[in-house]
Specification:
With about 280 residues, this protein is an alpha/beta fold. The chain contains eight helices and 13 strands. Helix 4 crosses helix 5 and helix 7 packs parallel to helix 8. The two termini are about 25 Å apart.
Length: about 280
């Protein structure tokens, strides 16, 4: 797995998992800087390659009056300031073809949301920027079908692509992660597990997505044990009052110990002999 091509990535050779983490949405400069400061400190201590995550806008909303952002350019400039201040790369999701070039001027990794990962024009536009592309596995897609999404990036002369599993729809209001998909998707690209969105409970009658944040620890440990290359985790210092996805985000104060535990687990997994099927 190549991380070295991402600008300002640290600890790329540590053999630890890499981390994509930050708030769901950029709500303002102070909150972004406050969250980044905590995560940068602990990831540096634990030698975890780290990419700051924040959506510059939210297009997939349950209700018309849901928070969508503070303004595209304003939010993207905050992402750039986080990168320049803390010397870390950044990632944001894009929703339209026109977003690709705009966001690529400010961030280092472009993310394709799960509901949009089959949109060929969008995936190709992201790939053609030359940035690393993070493909969220559609909640409606099999692990095997992600090969075609990966190929759209690679056939655009861009080998820098990841797959992030964020669960599969199980009924109307629940998500299930099938860990059998991890080794399958690792044949195509490095695999990340989204341990917060996979615990969402969407389609609530209230129009506000629910979640099971008490299971983030369990989901993250299972992902490391299953051999994922990276962990995606949204976090906030005040999840109850976050403007987007507060119901399934990790409270920031819990993050340092969780990352310490995951690093210890990763070290154990790395020390085990591999099994060869006979």
């Amino acid at each position: 797995m190549r991380l070295q091509n991402i600008p300002q990535i640290s600890h790329a050779d540590s053999n630890n998992f890499f981390l994509l983490s930050g708030p769901c949405a950029i709500e303002g400069e102070d909150m972004a800087m406050r969250i980044a400061e905590v995560i940068v400190k602990v990831t540096d201590e634990l030698k975890i390659p780290y990419v700051f995550k924040g959506s510059f806008k939210k297009a997939n909303r349950s209700r018309a009056d849901s928070f969508t952002g503070i303004g595209d350019e304003k939010a993207l400039k905050i992402l750039r300031k986080v990168s320049e201040t803390f010397k870390v790369p950044t990632i944001t999701d894009i929703h339209e073809v026109s977003d690709a070039d705009m966001a690529a001027e400010y961030v280092d990794v472009l993310q394709i949301p799960a509901f949009l990962v089959r949109q060929t024009d969008l995936v190709v536009a992201a790939a053609e920027t030359g940035k690393t592309v993070n493909l969220k596995k559609g909640q409606f897609m099999s692990p095997e079908s992600m090969k075609h999404a990966v190929n759209k990036v690679k056939e655009s002369d861009n080998e820098n692509v990841w797959i992030t599993d964020r669960g599969t729809m199980f009924g109307y209001q629940d998500m299930i992660v099938d860990f059998r998909g991890v080794p399958t998707m690792k044949q195509y690209a490095p695999v990340v597990l989204d341990v917060t969105h996979s615990l969402q409970q969407p389609n609530q009658a209230s129009g506000v997505t629910g979640g099971r944040p008490e299971l983030i620890n369990t989901m993250a440990r299972a992902g490391i044990a299953a051999g994922v290359d990276g962990i995606f985790m949204e976090t906030h210092f005040d999840p109850a009052n976050a403007k987007s996805d507060g119901a399934n985000m990790l409270d920031l104060k819990m993050l340092p110990q969780l990352l310490k535990n995951l690093t210890a687990l990763r070290q154990t997994i790395n020390s085990l002999p591999s099994l060869v099927n006979n």
